[in-house]
Specification:
Layout: H1 2-10, H2 12-23, H3 26-42, H4 53-75, H5 93-108, H6 111-122, H7 127-134, H8 138-157
Length: 159
């Protein structure tokens, strides 16, 4: 059990990166990581030894974010990211503009497309593991990834 706690702690940077890809907001990402870590620690007995811990954690995060998104829709409580204008006038403005363009394009994708891009392209999960996290067949994952890449490229080309 102590080993699992340490392994979860080791995954925190990857969890935060995945959370940022889903939420586009630093505070929401931190909250999502906290919720997922808490759920994983409380439900350690549900983890099956011999399976990938990162896939299990990412599945918890995906489900927690879906719950939060549904709750926000009900509350109509969506906020623009605070950090959207934090680098105005900075020498790194051009690089920041490219980053904002990618974030904006990602935010325009469907949630399914954002998740598949975050898991496969950002986190580097193998297709099989990403399919398990998302609860879809491998063929669905590959076609969803192809459509997500195409949509993202189209959005970026239009910026």
């Amino acid at each position: 059990m102590m080993k699992l706690n340490a392994d979860i702690a080791d995954l925190l940077p990857r969890m935060r990166r995945f959370a940022r890809a889903l939420t586009f907001n630093r505070e929401d990402a931190d909250d999502l990581v906290q919720v997922a870590a808490e759920r994983a620690l409380v439900r350690q007995d549900q983890f099956q030894a011999g399976t990938r811990l990162d896939s299990w954690i990412f599945r918890i995060m995906k489900n927690a974010w879906i719950d939060e998104a549904r709750s926000r829709i009900r509350r109509d409580d969506l906020f623009a990211p605070e950090e959207a204008g934090e680098h105005v006038g900075d020498d790194s403005a051009e690089a920041h503009q490219r980053k904002l363009a990618v974030e904006k394009a990602m935010s325009m994708l469907s949630e399914d497309h954002r998740m598949v891009i975050a898991l496969v392209l950002v986190e580097g999960l193998p297709y099989k593991e990403a399919a398990e996290v998302l609860g879809v067949p491998m063929g669905t994952l590959t076609s969803r990834l192809a459509r997500a890449r195409e949509a993202l490229q189209g959005l970026l080309a239009g910026t």
